[in-house]
Specification:
The chain is mostly helical. It contains six helices and no strands. It comes from Rhodobacter capsulatus (Rhodopseudomonas capsulata).
């Protein structure tokens, strides 16, 4: 594998600086990113910010208003299911090419069903 030159490194840094901005989210749900970026960053990269916030808010609700914890988790599970459906539609529009992308589509569909099912049954 060859080393990247300064120009390529600068272009890579500019591209990475766009991640998790409003324009990047628009590109994500519009299927203008690659399959890998859409799958990994859309499903799991976003969770790097969401999970700590949910844990913090859940802890505060548990301490201050325990009765609000179940509706809060139901809302979070429903929003997660809807977000995952959005990522799934973007992945389907990009189109899988090979075995791993098909496995990614199946996993994404399962996660969407799991989130929506949890929201209904919680």
């Amino acid at each position: 594998m060859s080393e990247l030159n300064e120009k390529q490194l600068a272009a890579l840094a500019r591209e990475r600086a766009k991640i998790f901005t409003p324009g990047w989210f628009a590109d994500l749900v519009s299927a203008r990113l690659g399959f890998g970026d859409t799958f990994w960053l859309g499903l799991f990269g976003v969770m790097l910010f969401v999970v700590p916030a949910v844990v913090l808010i859940g802890g505060l609700l548990y301490a201050q208003a325990p009765g609000a914890l179940r509706p809060f988790f139901r809302l979070v599970a429903g929003l997660y299911g809807l977000w995952t459906l959005g990522v799934l539609q973007a992945l389907l529009r990009i189109g899988p090419r090979g075995g791993y992308p098909i496995a990614g589509l199946l996993l994404t569909a399962g996660l969407a069903l799991s989130g929506l099912g949890t929201a209904v049954m919680l």
